[in-house]
């Protein structure tokens, strides 16, 4: 079954009402036939739902679809993308453990690694995503987990997942890939050797800027402790949000095709504009990781990162003169969004951390939407003028 069909046809069992579209199960708890049934369920000896902080038919449907698309054995969904990341780190790491991560990460991921985990006695090493020797030297027998984004946010840098997984395997280090920018449509980290794939479902999976959500999928043995941590700490996804996101998966492949087509066209246009110093897009032939992108991704994604020749002043001038594009910190929306990462999404990072993540005051991140590409380009052209 193809991914587009999985997103449409996999759903929770129909109820006695014979509904065609999955209903929303807005309930906090579930009833039992008798006291013995309740005892059996809480012992883990029966199948079904106990409490919506643990599971719910809507969250189970969403997990089933994502696991099918990523070819994962099991998964969980969370209240937000950052909850997915934090629960994964917290469930598997403890005092004295060693984490190795890329220095090209979303700002909040970097903050957790640099500021929260060290308070718990977890040692962290950040490595330049392009430094192969750095990765080889950083991963040791003490390394419990390796965490990466590929493509990275917002620098659009890539790392070879297969190569890194082979590096992790002798040390039994869990390889975690933030797959948010690629989605299950463009990249399948688990098939490339990763143990866990994480999504901020808030982004492309929702696709319309309506709701928050996160997902973690992978091998059963690595998902089990994350599920146990989640059910006890409570960053659970609501049934309503799960229902929205499950319905969104029905159109994910179609949307990603248009996002990628538009983004590629915009990147190609901007690289020839005299006010643009640099354009990054994985499927442009001048991207430093173009060959790798073609190898492990099916399309280039919906994000274009540009550096303007005039620095922060020119970036702000462009943003302030746009008439159609949205100015917001989200991405993956049906509407095209422009963001100045240095002063918004990554503003809490130090200047050194920003530079390591490929961010300067000249950097703009464009999440390319589903509008007609001519209208997207026309708005940027008039803003430049």
Helix/strand/pairing category: alpha/beta
Q: SSE order, as H and E?
A: HHHEHEHEHEHEHEEHHHEHEHEEHEH
Q: What amount of the residues lies in strands?
A: 15-25%
C-alpha Rg (nearest Å): 21 Å
Q: Under the CATH scheme, which architecture of the largest domain would be assigned?
A: 3-Layer(aba) Sandwich
pLDDT < 50 runs, ≥5 residues: none
- Write down the CATH class of the largest domain: Alpha Beta
Major sheet description: 7 strands, mixed
Strand order of the largest sheet: 1-7-6-5-4-2-3
The CATH topology name of the largest domain reads Aspartate Aminotransferase, domain 2
User: Termini separation (Å)?
Assistant: 49 Å
Could you say which overall geometry the principal axes of the C-alpha atoms support? globular
Q: How would you name the CATH homologous superfamily of the largest domain?
A: Type I PLP-dependent aspartate aminotransferase-like (Major domain)
What is the number of helical segments per DSSP (H or I, 4+ residues)? 15
The tally of beta strands, per DSSP, is: 12
Helix fraction, binned, reads 25-40%
- What's the number of domains? 2
Q: How is this structure best described in words?
A:
The chain has 385 residues and is α/β, with parallel strands linked by helices. The protein has 2 domains: 3-250, Type I PLP-dependent aspartate aminotransferase-like (Major domain) (Aspartate Aminotransferase, domain 2); 252-384, Aspartate Aminotransferase, domain 1 (Alpha-Beta Complex), CATH 3.90.1150.10. 39% of the residues lie in helices and 15% in strands. The chain has 15 helices and 12 strands. It has helices spanning 3-9, 35-42, 57-70, 81-92, 107-116, 132-138, 161-168, 183-186, 220-233, 239-248, 252-270, 290-296, 311-321, 351-356, 373-384; strands at 74-78, 98-102, 123-127, 143-149, 174-178, 196-200, 214-218, 276-280, 303-308, 326-327, 337-339, 363-367. The strands form 2 sheets. The chain has a 7-stranded mixed sheet, with helices on both faces. α3 packs parallel to α10 (239-248), α4 (81-92) packs across α9 (220-233) and α13 crosses α15.
């Amino acid at each position: 079954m193809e991914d587009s069909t999985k997103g449409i046809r996999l759903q929770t069992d129909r109820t006695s009402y014979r509904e065609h579209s999955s209903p929303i199960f807005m309930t906090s708890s579930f009833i039992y036939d008798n006291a013995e049934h309740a005892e059996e369920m809480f012992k883990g000896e029966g199948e079904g739902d106990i409490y919506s902080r643990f599971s719910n038919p809507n969250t189970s449907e969403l997990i089933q679809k994502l696991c099918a698309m990523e070819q994962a054995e099991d998964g969980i969904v969370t209240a937000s993308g950052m909850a997915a990341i934090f629960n994964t780190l917290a469930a598997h790491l403890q005092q004295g453990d060693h984490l190795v991560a890329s220095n090209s990460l979303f700002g909040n991921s970097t903050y957790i690694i640099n500021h929260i985990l060290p308070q718990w006695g977890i040692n962290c090493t950040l490595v330049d995503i392009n430094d192969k020797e750095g990765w080889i030297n950083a991963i040791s027998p003490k390394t419990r987990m390796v965490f990466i984004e590929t493509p990275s946010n917002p620098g659009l840098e890539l790392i070879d997942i297969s190569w890194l997984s082979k590096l992790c395997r002798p040390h039994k280090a869990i390889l975690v890939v933030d797959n948010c920018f690629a989605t299950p449509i463009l990249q399948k980290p688990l098939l490339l050797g990763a143990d866990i794939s994480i999504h901020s479902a808030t982004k492309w999976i929702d696709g319309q800027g309506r709701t928050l959500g996160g997902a973690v999928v992978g091998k059963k043995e690595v998902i089990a402790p994350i599920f146990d941590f989640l059910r006890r700490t409570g960053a659970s996804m609501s049934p309503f949000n799960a229902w929205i996101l499950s319905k969104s998966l029905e159109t994910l492949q179609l949307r990603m095709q248009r996002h990628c087509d538009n983004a590629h066209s915009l990147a190609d246009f901007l690289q020839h504009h005299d006010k643009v110093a640099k354009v990054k897009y994985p499927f442009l032939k001048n991207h430093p990781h173009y060959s790798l992108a073609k190898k492990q991704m099916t399309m280039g994604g919906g994000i274009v990162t540009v550096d303007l020749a005039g620095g922060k002043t020119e970036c702000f001038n462009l943003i302030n003169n746009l008439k159609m594009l949205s100015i917001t910190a989200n991405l993956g929306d049906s509407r095209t969004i422009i963001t100045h990462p240095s002063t918004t999404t990554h503003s809490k990072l130090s200047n050194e951390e920003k530079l390591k993540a490929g961010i300067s005051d000249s950097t703009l991140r464009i999440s390319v939407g589903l509008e007609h590409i001519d209208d997207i380009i026309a708005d940027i052209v008039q803003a430049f003028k």
